[in-house]
Structure of cysteine--tRNA ligase:
Amino acid sequence: MAVQQPPWTLPSQKSPEPTLKIYNSLTRTKTEFVPINGRHVKWYNCGPTVYDASHMGHARNYVTQDILRRIMTDYFRYDVHFVMNITDIDDKIIIRARHNHLIANLRSETTSLTPTLIEQVREAWVSYVQSKVSKGLPESERPSAGSEQAQWPKLVERFRDKEWKQQGLQRDEKFEMHFSAAAITFNALLKAEEYFKSGQTGVENAHTLIDSSQDVLALALDKQLGGTVNDHTIFRSLAAYWEAEFFKDMRRLRVRDPDTLTRVTEYVPEIVSFVEGIVKNGFGYVVDGSVYFDTRAFDKADGHTYAKLEPWSKGNRELLEEGEGALSAASGGKRSPADFALWKASKPGEPSWPSPWGEGRPGWHIECSVMASAILGDNMDIHSGGIDLAFPHHDNEMAQSEAYHNCSAWVNYFIHTGHLHIEGLKMSKSLKNFITIDEILQKYTARQLRLAFLTQLWNAKVDFSESLMTGEVRGIEIAFNSLTSSSFPTSSLHASQAAFRAALCDSFNTPEAINVLRDLVSKTNVYIRAPDGNLEIGLIQRVARWVGDMLRIFGLGEGETQEIGWGQERSANEGNVNREEILMPYLRTLSSFRDGVRKLAIAKGENALKDILALSDKLRDVDLVPLGVALDDQEGTPSHLLSDFPARYACVPSDSLLTGRLNCVCDARTPSLQWPQNLPRTPSTLDVARALRTFSVVPAVDGKALVKLVPPEELIKAREEKRAQAEAKAARKAAAAEAERQKRLAALEKGRVPPQELFRPPNVPEGTYGSWDENGIPLTDGEGKELSKSASKKLQKEWTLQKKRHEDFLEWQKQQEKDQG
Ligand SMILES: [Zn+2]
């Protein structure tokens, strides 16, 4: 019998892989995610209306969408086709562009400050006070026609009363904005009148008046001349400018570009035929050149339901009107107040395109139906946007598309990102808590912002606050910063991986996923510090790499993909750093030092050790100085303090104590360096270690030089000063030596005369003495008289001294001859 393999049985799965579930606005529950075609996911996201700077609300929405998209593509590995639109035809764009254009025109036509201009601004101001400011004033305090100027100072006085202002804000949330605009214009008017009276009618004063009253003037100008602005490029260029700004902000926030970007202006013919299709299917009707969607007909039709997302908002007039835009005609011929515009007849001053119903432009909601259909076909897997768009925009989009495609499930998963509040309050210009993306990025990094959103559920309300950023976000950053290649373990890696997947499958639960990663990092660090020291380095590396990869999925990886952890955050400039350019000078120095040491070691000369030391000094004093590296061979520094104070003080909760101690230590070592500003107030061990590196303080373990990075010019200056001091000292020494030599020479010179000759001419005047003994010591004076006893004794003493001097002299002379010969 032939030898057979034993039977094999299909393994039975003990723990099945969790399936991805997504919170779906269409059911308000977490529903299993099933793409229509295999792993291909069709996704449409509502993009911005481009007429102003992007703000924190945009950041919340687009960064969150980006996180979900990255999880779908980079973690679940779906083949996602992400489409986003730019709304570049919109009432807000039209109004803003017209205002800008009319103000610019007035400015360029104005050549001097005239009574006509002053009058024009005054009239604009009066009508602004009546139409805008009055909305926030109590009935009894609204100025009657003609009394606006007289009443104004009193209103300004009232405005200072906080409670009064608060009541105004309750009547009109833009009250403060309107009041401030009117106040600025009023003061500018007073000033302009003064200028005119004193004859200062120059163009600058006229422009100052226009600039200070822009908001007020634009409304009046638009009322009067808005209809004359019909050039498409005026609207288009405003939208193009803000679109470019939007994408600049998005890239700074590390939001990926969409796979396909669509603009309304590029889809107008498709929109016209789409609207025709809806009318043909019986769900649209024409009134005075505008086309409306028939919500009642749609709701009644088999297989269709209107307002699937928010059926309870159906009759909400405020939301409906907002959706229709500020320029839409009164709802005259509408069959139902809930009906909305598919196509709007354009009035003068509004951009228009040809259509079977006359010149007009698309309604707001239709654009997304058309562009999504044009790119993705008659259905999609995911549609996303901010929660504010759910009704009426998304409900209307769905109704239009299902009316056109004759289907009942145009979108399978509708996902809405949650609201954003700032310190507990809705963000709004009138509350003065309006933050642009540019402003927020001056305060926090893109990574910190992203972490702030990651730690909240994507569909929950985020309260953006100082405490969130300095507390939780900072804590997570510190936890993940301790992720280094030399730090990891675990048997819990697989458990963490499973928990991580489960969290993301649970409708992208990023707060939970981040917790899983954070726990794994702490467990790993505990493992590393365990006393037995049997570390499985391979496992630690796997953990490190996996955590890093998962952080990158969230868009948190700033460094190179090979880097462990999330990598170093780099500024835009640093991103292009040329490593070769930076490192080569140091490497060349290191290499040539090595060459020198090798040569000396091989030669084994008798002075080799001395020469190596000299080479080391040259490295310190000559080669490293222009590179800005200071080496200091100091000994006996508090190295123990530096090496163990992170461990000793990191756990001290009082930041003042810790900071104080660190300051002391660091001040002692590097008096010229300041405590780094980016060090958190409650530093961890790692921060402390970092700070030390920031200080360039390398703990001076015995015999190791202290290394500091110092600007080269400082080092060169210090070196020159040292050299000058040494030279001055040497010069002083040389001068002293020379003086000593001269003194000695003078002394020797005195011994040139032999003692026998000392008292004979020419060494004494002729006739000083009469006779001498055999040693040349005088016996009598010039007159032959015997010298006194005391005089003889004195001469004898002198003679003995000279004898000694002369012997020294002869000795020196002999030495000189020997040296020269
Ligand atoms: Zn949309």
